[in-house]
């Protein structure tokens, strides 16, 4: 981690606060008769979901609770409302139903110096408490941005309870003096999905023991800027990698997966005698429950922030039982190696012999450009890993000894789906 951090510039949190909201910019104050029409798109009420169900390009975000905030060009909050999903929770003039916002609602008596409207949704009371609004403890948008979202709160309910945000500048409408805005809430986290892991052509036998998100921000400011001190990772330098993983994931159980099953399938690879492109039985690994994916929430970047200071995300796959063909450097021939036996002959402790880690920390867009710069991860995107092959390259006895590149292609949908193709 020491080398990893040294290569990354420390971002300015204070700069990020001002960068994420256009209401800090100087704009003309609209003339309003106190009537503002607000409509909310791309959001539904809470429903029942199965944990770890893959996202599709037809899904919208779910809103469970939230706040609508009207503010001035300098970020002063002039009016606020709490958004609720049940009529029983409408207790006063400052609580409104989600259904009203989806249809569009006209707010009366909005002060004339208001220029912006924002919605922050699906936060916990620990992160943003209704009492702070109602007791006037939050007076500026900066007071909201100074609070932090917790990664653990983004995981529940198949990540359908993730924090949501949008802000729009009010626009004049046909009605004299009236203003309007349409908001489209977007998740304040990204999501990594893996549906399947298969062997590369040189891998004859193997077992996937665990899949870990092993470098991530455990919290982020509500303006979607991440701070260096919130970057979390297991002890990469520990002489006992499994002990490091076990200890670290006591606090992040939702970012490690051992619910893994092997399924025998037909694939193309090397034959038992080393012949090329042979149809043979392979073992593919899937989540234990059919139709599920291994899914991980993480804090990416905010697409409206100019800051480039973000550590991205890192992934570890733990492997055992490896038997694979490797080239004999002396003869040039492909030779089958049993990794466990190889380790025992080197004097490795039998408890850890044969264990290897596949470490992934870089992703690129162009699958044919090995010199491409790593992509930046953005909130509101689902990064779907496809054709995930374990190969003989980049396997290590340690966790995170070096970076590799992974390829992806992009398609844009409500929860923006980005398909990721590893080239390992």
How do the helices and strands line up, and which of them pair or pack?
Layout: H1 2-6, H2 13-19, E1 36-41, E2 43-44, E3 61-62, E4 66-71, E5 77-84, E6 95-97, H3 98-103, E7 105-107, E8 116-121, H4 130-134, H5 141-145, E9 148-150, H6 156-159, E10 164-169, E11 171-172, E12 179-184, E13 186-187, E14 190-194, E15 197-199, E16 203-217, E17 219-221, E18 231-232, H7 241-248, E19 256-257, E20 260-269, E21 278-287, E22 294-298, E23 314-327, E24 334-338, H8 339-345, E25 356-360, E26 381-385, E27 388-390, E28 395-396, E29 406-410, E30 416-422
Parallel strand pairs: 1-12, 2-3, 5-6, 14-26, 15-27, 26-30
Antiparallel strand pairs: 1-7, 4-5, 4-8, 8-10, 9-17, 10-13, 11-12, 14-22, 16-18, 16-19, 16-23, 20-21, 23-24, 23-25, 25-28, 29-30
Say how many strands there are.
Answer: 30
- Give a quick account of the main beta sheet: strands, pairing sense, barrel closure: 7 strands, antiparallel
What's the pLDDT, averaged over the residues?
80
- The backbone outline, from C-alpha atoms, is elongated
**Distance N terminus to C terminus?**
22 Å
Helical fraction equals 10-25%
How many whole angstroms does the radius of gyration measure? 25 Å
Instruction: Note the beta-strand portion.
Output: 35-45%
């Amino acid at each position: 981690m020491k080398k990893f951090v040294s290569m990354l510039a420390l971002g300015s949190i204070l700069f990020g606060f001002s960068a994420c909201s256009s209401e800090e910019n100087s704009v003309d104050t609209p003339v309003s008769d106190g009537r503002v029409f607000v409509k909310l798109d791309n959001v539904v009420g809470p429903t029942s979901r199965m944990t770890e169900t893959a996202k599709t390009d037809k899904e919208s975000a779910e809103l469970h609770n939230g706040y609508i905030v009207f503010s001035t060009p300098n970020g002063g909050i002039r009016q606020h409302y709490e958004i609720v999903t049940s009529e029983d929770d409408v207790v006063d003039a400052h609580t409104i139903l989600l259904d009203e916002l989806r249809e569009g609602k006209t707010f009366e008596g909005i002060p004339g110096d208001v220029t912006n409207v924002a919605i922050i949704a699906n936060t916990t009371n620990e992160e943003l408490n209704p009492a702070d609004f109602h007791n006037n403890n939050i007076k500026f948008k900066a007071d909201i941005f100074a609070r932090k979202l917790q990664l653990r709160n983004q995981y529940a309910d198949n990540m359908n309870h993730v924090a949501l945000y949008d802000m729009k500048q009010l626009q004049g409408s046909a009605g004299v003096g009236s203003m309007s805005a349409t908001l489209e809430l977007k998740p304040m986290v990204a999501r990594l999905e893996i549906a399947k892991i298969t062997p590369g052509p040189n891998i004859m036998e193997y077992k996937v023991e665990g899949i870990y998100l092993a470098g991530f921000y455990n919290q982020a400011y509500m303006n979607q800027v991440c701070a260096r001190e919130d970057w979390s990772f297991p002890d990469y330098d520990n002489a006992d990698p499994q002990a490091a993983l076990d200890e670290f994931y006591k606090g992040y159980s939702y970012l490690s997966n051992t619910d893994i099953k092997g399924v025998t399938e037909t694939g193309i690879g090397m034959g038992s005698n080393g012949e090329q492109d042979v149809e043979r039985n392979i073992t593919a690994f899937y989540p234990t429950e059919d139709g599920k994916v291994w899914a991980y929430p993480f804090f990416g970047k905010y697409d409206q922030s100019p800051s480039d200071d973000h550590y991205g995300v890192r992934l570890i796959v733990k492997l055992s039982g490896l038997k694979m063909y490797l080239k004999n450097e002396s003869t040039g021939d492909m030779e089958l190696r049993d990794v466990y036996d190889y380790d025992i002959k080197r004097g490795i402790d039998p408890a850890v012999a044969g264990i290897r880690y596949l470490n992934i920390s870089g992703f690129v867009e162009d699958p044919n450009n090995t010199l491409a710069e790593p992509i930046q991860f953005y909130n509101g995107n689902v990064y779907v890993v496809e054709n995930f092959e374990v190969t003989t390259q980049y396997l290590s006895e340690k966790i995170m000894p070096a970076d590799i590149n992974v390829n992806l292609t992009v398609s844009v949908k409500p929860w923006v789906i980005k398909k990721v193709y590893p080239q390992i």
